[in-house]
Write a structure and sequence with these properties.
Two copies of one chain form a homodimer. Chain A is an alpha+beta fold. Helices cover 32% and strands 27% of the residues of chain A. In chain A, the strands form three sheets. Chain A has a six-stranded mixed sheet with strand order 8-10-7-11-9-12, sandwiched between helices. In chain A, strands 3-6-4-5 form a four-stranded mixed sheet, with helices on one face. The radius of gyration of chain A is 19 Å and the shape is globular. The N and C termini of chain A lie far apart (51 Å).
């Protein structure tokens, strides 16, 4: 479970008790575990997809901090009949695309395919990374790309709707927004996270960490191609998929007005603004009747 | 799955996408996964033991590099009926003893209790850590403590032999030799690893990584209290348990003659010496008839 060749930071890896990696000022570390049957289903997802997706979920956390991705450590519990090499190929494909070294791991057997991924990113100093807690009244709120694709893709994979292959790939092969995250950190973003559970609940995390109100416009949410058609087939509103579907792994950032142009250059699309507390999210143009969208119609 | 309070390196942890940790010159990283039924059995081991043991196995890899232990990231797949808090108490007890911060983790559900632990240690520079590959002809070979306790403890737990509670604890609650590892690195040890599979096979790893012959004396192996009695009950030689039992997590180091006194002060007990190649291990005084002991009687 190792990369073909190590990155320039990696001093020791194969054949030792631990990897040894040249550090920058601060390490940024996240760990994620995904289990067959809970986070994906083999059959819908191939082992390659599972490897890619587990690594993507962890790297997305580094993107959300604005860190440079460095190394990944991949522990796998292999269930009977699962192709370990295919799984590794999927993870390695994404690692290569992101300039990440898979610098260590562990492999054992068990009853369900389980992937535990720890990723280490690097930044020059603690104040160069972006937490969830810095949103200020007056900030603009933006997302780094179209939403709803992963939820719509899962509906296509499960046969609940028709849709283009690009939608299934949104679910199976998400791309962590590492370049956008670094650019937004450099631009001076005040607060940032990645959309893993869905904007409706993730925006609430930014509001609570910052003690501010996020005022968001559902009509401004960028929709992934094919989401309106899948939403129609499912009998729901497209913005419902975009705001509550989750696993799009786009970034949501709160950015000072002065950084508007730099944030737009990093790909951010505006969906609202930050107001003084209380810690809350209020929506304009949200579809009525959804329990997950609280405080709408401001 | 977090420590009560963070260590002084830890800048961000709870409530963000990733932990942020002040770095030293190099990061030393190891990851281990343990699954109920493969690496331990709930029933023999309590959830507290499983948490302790999984963290101990990973920290032992940092000890083997001579790194300062820093942070641990603990991902848990919880099977029905397993007490997550007890598991965390076990890991936290060892973390507190070692000055380690459990700085992040993930928790999900699945069919078998699984613990994936990634540990990050720190050292000033790459040449301050000790790999497996540096053994030189003329080096002394030593181990950091008594052997065989874990294998004997498992035999006691499984009802195959009688023995004192200290033996069961050797198996359930191993202590990573972090202080000894740092002292041996500072003393100038040439090569080092931790005894997870057992000296008979782990010594071979040092021989192969260094391209040297390790000449070891089975009669010199320090035995844990109670090992001779358990070996007698099992009808085997005590040194057989000491050399092939595994999971003692003591260190085995190759040390230049000039560092003899410093290594002894770090607790090392001599079991042999390094000779010029070929890559091999030859034993003196080994019990006859064991397939795991090759090249004995020099």
């Amino acid at each position: 479970m190792l990369s073909v060749r190590p990155g320039t930071r990696v001093v020791r890896w194969i054949g030792d008790d631990a990897a040894v990696v040249r550090a920058d000022g601060v390490a940024v570390v996240s760990t994620d575990v995904m289990v067959d049957g809970t986070h994906f289903r083999l059959g819908q997802a191939m082992p390659e997809d599972a490897g890619w997706r587990a690594l993507a979920g962890a790297l997305s956390d580094l993107a959300a901090m604005g860190a440079e991705a460095g190394e990944a450590y991949l522990s796998v519990v292999l269930a009977p009949g699962v192709d370990a090499l295919a799984l590794h190929r999927g993870a390695e494909a994404l690692a290569a695309e992101c300039g990440v070294t898979i610098a260590g791991g562990d492999l054992t057997r068990g009853p369900a395919l389980t992937l535990a991924v720890t990723v280490v990113g690097w930044a020059a100093a603690a104040d160069a990374v972006v937490g969830r807690d810095g949103a200020c009244p007056g900030d603009l709120v933006g997302v780094s790309g179209p939403l709803g694709g992963s939820a719509a893709g899962l509906a296509v994979l499960e046969g609940r709707a028709d849709g283009p292959p690009s939608l299934a790939l949104s679910y199976l092969r998400p791309r962590p927004r590492l370049a956008a995250g670094r650019a937004l950190a450099a631009a001076g973003a005040h607060a940032m996270l990645d959309l893993s559970d869905g904007l409706a609940s993730d925006a609430r995390r930014l509001a609570e960490a910052g003690g501010v109100t996020l005022r968001l416009d559902a009509a401004a949410l960028p929709l992934a191609d094919g989401v309106p058609a899948v939403a129609g087939a499912l009998g729901t509103d497209p913005t419902e998929l975009a705001a509550t579907g989750g696993e799009d792994y786009e970034l949501c950032a709160c950015v000072p007005q002065a950084a508007r142009a730099a944030a737009e250059a990093a790909g951010l699309r505006w969906i609202g603004e930050v107001a003084a507390g209380p810690a809350d999210v209020v929506w304009r143009n949200a579809p009525p009747g959804s329990a997950a969208w609280r405080g709408y119609e401001y």
